[in-house]
Design goal:
mainly beta; 2 helices; At1g16640 B3 domain; 5-stranded mixed beta sheet; 2 domains
Length: 155
């Protein structure tokens, strides 16, 4: 099961949960569709399960490098668009990123960048250019292992 982050929004004294756009698109959600959600207690280690069925999990994300962020390459970091950040461990928790240049222990920063440990990767593949593609596969959710696949637009 893949965990995702839902944003709480209060409108006229009623709370709503915002589902990430990528999830809504993947499951073709429409207005008034029902979703199954599990809640996790912050004070207890136990998960409270309200339903015994869970939807299929996304096992990869894919996006193009945008015109706005390709110039950040001099800092050796990859920007993860906000709509895809739910895919990674939260709160700066480290995860393993398997690349063709080796395995990197890194994390997603609060402002959406993967930067730790990417200097060697960028020396082999950088700079990232607009419309290049990044695909990140979930290899092992339990051990927080992901695989980075990079494809230049010209390839």
């Amino acid at each position: 099961m893949k965990k995702i982050k839902l944003n709480t929004v209060k409108i006229k004294n009623t709370y709503y949960l915002k589902v990430p756009d990528l999830v809504a698109e993947a499951y073709h959600l429409k207005n008034n569709d029902d979703l199954e959600v599990t809640f996790h207690s912050k004070s207890k280690k136990n998960q409270i399960e309200l339903w015994d069925l869970h939807p299929e999990d996304l096992d990869y994300i894919e996006f193009d490098i945008s015109n706005e962020v390709h110039t950040i390459n001099m800092y050796n970091r990859i920007y993860i668009p906000e709509r895809y950040r739910f895919f990674f461990p939260l709160n700066g928790k480290n995860f393993i990123l398997i690349t063709s240049a080796g395995t990197i222990e890194t994390h997603l920063s609060n402002n959406g960048y993967i930067s730790k440990g990417l200097r060697f990767w960028f020396s082999m593949y950088g700079p990232l250019m607009p419309n290049d593609k990044i695909r990140i596969n979930l290899i092992d959710d339990k051990n927080s292992e992901y695989q980075l696949i990079y494809k230049r637009e010209s390839e």
